[in-house]
Amino acid sequence: MPQKALIIVDLQNDFCPGGALAVTNGDQVVPVIQDWVNRFHHDHQLIVTTQDAHPSNHVSFQAQGGPWPPHCVVGTPGFRLHPDLWLPADTPQFHKGFREDQDAYSGFEGLLSEGGQRTLLLADFLRQNGVTEVYVAGLATDYCVRATVLDALKEGFKTWVIADGVKGVDVNPGDSDRALVEMARRGAELI
Ligand code: VGL
Ligand code: ZN
């Protein structure tokens, strides 16, 4: 049984340059994360992805009074994972934020998506697979990475944040740095 899981958070086209809610240099994490994927795959450790999976009238969109432009609408190119990241074909995907009236930043609010069904919660899936330690990378440091890391700690996982594998939105300058300090204060280790 794997003991470690790599959690790749929202590495989707809409969060990369050219996307609807682009993180500056967001695509720079792709080669970094690729190295981790290759290593975890080689070592038979678990790899999972999370995806922001919004309907077109999602509550977080500005037209609905939310803070964000429309992004990661299921079925659009912006929803898809960055095309340069190679993942094993059977890599589990966890969808979150798919209810029209609810936002979800944390991957731990995500449900396993397979065959058009959304079933198992991420924490349950990880435990069923013997995972005790998680390594978190992806986008965005100050939103979904932060929320995922804080939930991982609450769920009792030993939690590592891959420092050069995350990038933030920084709506206010320094948000990402503050988020990293907060994650560390709550018990996450930067690697
Ligand atoms: C995210 C803003 C809105 C993220 C998702 O993945 O960090 N940020 N939706
Ligand atoms: Zn979103």
From TrEMBL:
Q: Which Pfam families match?
A: Isochorismatase
Q: This protein is called what?
A: nicotinamidase
**Does the record's keyword annotation contain NAD?**
no
Question: A biological process (GO) annotation for this entry?
Answer: pyridine nucleotide biosynthetic process
Q: What class of enzyme is it?
A: hydrolase
Query: What pathway does the UniProt record associate with this protein?
Result: Cofactor biosynthesis; nicotinate biosynthesis; nicotinate from nicotinamide: step 1/1
Entry keyword set: Hydrolase, Metal-binding, Pyridine nucleotide biosynthesis
GO MF annotations in UniProt: metal ion binding; nicotinamidase activity
Question: Which family is this sequence assigned to?
Answer: Belongs to the isochorismatase family.
Q: What is its EC number?
A: 3.5.1.19
User: Which positions fall inside the Isochorismatase-like domain?
Assistant: 5-191
Family matches, as InterPro entries: Isochorismatase-like_dom (IPR000868), Isochorismatase-like_sf (IPR036380), Isochorismatase_Nicotinamidase (IPR052347)
